[in-house]
Amino acid sequence: MLKLCVNDKTKDLSNNHIGSSIPSNLPVTLKTLSLFDNYLTRSIPDGISLLGQLSDLSLNNNHLKGVITDVFL
Question: Domain count of the chain?
Answer without folding.
Answer: 1
